Amino acid sequence: MAPINKPVTTKVNGIVMETNPEVLLKKRRRAEETRLEKQQQAAKKLQKQAKQKANKQAKGKFIRAETIVATTLATEREKERIKRINKVEHSKSQGKTEHLASTADYFLKVTENPDYDENSDEADNEELIQEKIKYNGEESLLFVLRIKGPVSVKIPHKPFTVLKLLRLEELNTGVFLKLNDKTFPLLKLISPYIVCGKPSLKSIRSLIQKRSTVMHKKDNIEGEEEEEKEVILNDNNIVEDKLGEYGIVCIDDIIHEISSLSEYFSHCNFFLQPFKLSREVSGFGAISKLKKLESKKKMKGLLSGLSNSGTAPVIQVDIDAFIEKLN
Predict the structure, then answer these.
(1) 21 found inside a domain
(2) Which one, of 322, 310, 305, lies nearest residue 109 by Cα?
(3) Could you give the CA distance from residue 255 to residue 159 in angstroms, rounded to a whole number?
(4) Is residue 297 domain-resident?
(5) In 166-227, where does DSSP find H-type helix?
(6) What is the rounded distance in angstroms from the CA atom of residue 171 to the CA atom of residue 75?
(7) How many domains are there within the chain?
(8) What band does 307 get if pLDDT is binned at 50, 70 and 90?
(9) What are the residues facing 225 on neighbouring strands?
(10) Average predicted confidence (pLDDT) for the chain
């Protein structure tokens, strides 16, 4: 009898073939699975050690009194903003709107001025154009992108809960959102921590084709299900397995459902994980630092319309330009 750890020579139709026995194949597969499992455990251990080290350093870090004061004041201002928004929304729900300056919701659309001249001193020569638009209550598609937010602010509980609900806990992550009368108040709560805008079909297609990931369980060779993992969406079979019962069988169907706000928009939207976009500027060189300063200045200009008022508009930007830069 031939040893099980060596190929077996067989003769089929006069042709000599070497085949590996099933026991050997299973042994190799188990060894490969064990190797991958050990690699994952080692990576988790290193990550845990790095986190513990960072926490230890943070505990012993000296914090200036000025920093504590700035953080406290900024957080108090943010809490006051949340109270004002809650008061306005509560008054609207109760129908007690006599004391409100306006009961309408607004967007502040901010776009770049194509005729802006950096060297000009004219009064009407502004880099950004701001236009206040009344929200008419119609459903529309928005792409919401998480940004850093106000300096020194610890995010209060309510906006943090909304960010968590929208799956926007990490910076530079974005999701599609169906805008309506129910979701607009949520945008008002988290407006300092996001930028949003209406994406074009080109941007929707680009995001889904380049950045889409989903949670998926793969079957191993023995037919057993592995634990759910985040995988890149590049296989229509995954789409058909998850959304086939709704008649959605390929990536193009998902693009259509999202862009047209169809019946199964929410199923497709929550099937996709939040889009993790790149940072606009990376690196630690002198040029990178200069670009970061320019980017920070530009973002400050875009968000200059933010207000602590309870009826403040939500900032709407050219989201297609953002997606093109960060995708």
Answers:
(1) no
(2) 305
(3) 29
(4) yes
(5) 184-190, 201-211
(6) 19
(7) 1
(8) confident
(9) 219
(10) 83
